[in-house]
Amino acid sequence: MNTTEEFLKDYTLEGEKLEIFTYPAPILKKVAEPVTEFNDSLKKLAKDMLYTMYHAPGIGLAAPQIGVSDRIFVMDIDFERKEVTRADGTRDYDISNFNPRIFINPKIEKTAGDIVYEEGCLSVPGIYEEVKRAEAIKVTYQDLDGNEQILEADGLLSVCIQHENDHLDGIVFLERLSTLKRNFLTKRYMKRVKGR
């Protein structure tokens, strides 16, 4: 069992909730730097990113979204979130069925087919739109020890990896849309941000 598998085995929801930067924060337009040090700081970053993602809630979170320009993202397309009422009458969420993943220095090596999927983004809250992506991909990445891993993914997992990988290249999903749609949604989003 490698460090990542050990780190993620019997995952428990703990860590620090980090600030999520929203569009048009400059960090979201920057190409992230490769991770070169595989140490306890990296493990803490991954742990805090997972914690932040689950509480946002979202199914993926890339380091630039929390203001760190490193090539790492986390995701979980399987977890469940249920609203519950506590004994004292307060409402909260129970989060379960964890299947966290960590991708460090990912590279999409192969793509095949097309899929259109409605995407949203923690950095562009409230905006959802259909985006065309590769249906299947092969991605290489490193684990928390720096060992190379290979994953073949399709469907939602493939879409999520491509979405998060875009963040590492300074691309927000709106930029994957036609100019007309992008301009329309960006104006609508910016109007909402200014109205806060």
UniProtKB/TrEMBL annotation:
Gene3D superfamilies registered for this protein in UniProt: Peptide deformylase
Coiled-coil spans in chain: none
Signal peptide range in chain numbering: none
Cited SUPFAM superfamilies: Peptide deformylase (SSF56420)
Catalytic residues of the enzyme: E164
Keyword Glycosyltransferase annotated: no
Protein name per UniProt: Peptide deformylase
Biological source species: Halobacteriovorax vibrionivorans
Gene name for this UniProt entry: def
